Amino acid sequence: MVADGVPREAMARVAELQAALAEALEAGDLAAWEELARELRLAERDRDRAIERAVARVHKERGTYRSALPAPTSREQTHALLNAVGVPLSPQLIISLAGALYGEELPYKAVTSLRHDERRAHLKAPGARSYYICPALQHDTFAPVRGLLTVSSWDLADRLIGPLTPRTTHLRLTIHLAESLDRVRDGETDPSANAVAIERLLWRFSATVPGVRRSELDAGRIREAADRELAVLADQDAADRATAARRAVDLPEVQRLFGASLKAAKTDKTTTGGA
User: How far apart (Å, rounded) are the C-alpha atoms in residues 9 and 167?
Assistant: First the structure.
């Protein structure tokens, strides 16, 4: 039995949304399907975090803690971190988060070279890898966004940067840091996590969140404030990116993964009437 039953509730929510998603698809209700798919992705992330906390409790009781990022290579560690956070990240932020959340030291050069290394690997043997570390893409031109990394297995919409995406990404990362700090303070995470480093990152990211009191670092209040602003922006951001993702369906795979040149993007917008 898992303490507090949190993972069971999170798992039940995922199962509920999966059933609703299937019903919407059978009914041909694509609008409902898109909204439920978005909710399901968020619920799956919540479930994974709940399970991670539960596993950490068990390891704590048994004295058998293991790193949440056990992968030996920088590529695999970057992949694990991107999936854990679930938003596009810069190489520098990936390195900072890996150190703060997991006590991992990622070489700067190894992380910054991933984008080009992955593209070369794909061109040499398309589809040979189960995933690729890819750049985020502009929602209007599908050109690669300099300095932002994502994972090829994500839905394309989650890899696109729309007008509101920088802000929603900032808020989601703030929420993730606040939750992580709470887990560290409660002793429910890897002991390699650096509470001071997490606090510094949270202080930095919460500075622009309305309603956050700068006199204290209250993770719960920061999370609530970020949630409030995110609730205002998230639906429009998701809609913008979903619309753009539908336009990208006819792009060659290599352009969906690693971005289109501006010339190719202009040609595509001309042939589709810019819709």
Answer: 29
Q: What is the mean pLDDT of the chain?
A: 86
Residue count of the chain: 275
SS3 label, residue 48: helix
Phi and psi torsions of 153, nearest 5°: -75, -10
Q: Give residue 210's pLDDT.
A: 95
Question: Per-domain residue ranges for the chain?
Answer: 1-66, 71-271
- In the chain, the largest separation of any two C-alpha atoms, in whole Å, equals 62
φ and ψ at residue 2, rounded to 5 degrees: -95, 140
Q: Is the pLDDT of residue 263 over 60?
A: no
Give CA 124 to chain center in angstroms: 28
Model confidence at 265: pLDDT above 60: no
The beta strand positions in the chain, using DSSP E, are: 133-138, 144-151, 160-161
The tokens of 71 are what? 């992968």
- Judged by DSSP in three states, 135 sits in strand
pLDDT tens figures, 231-252: 999 999 999 999 999 999 889 9
Say what the alpha-carbon torsion angle 246, 251, 257, 263 is, to the nearest 10 degrees.
-110
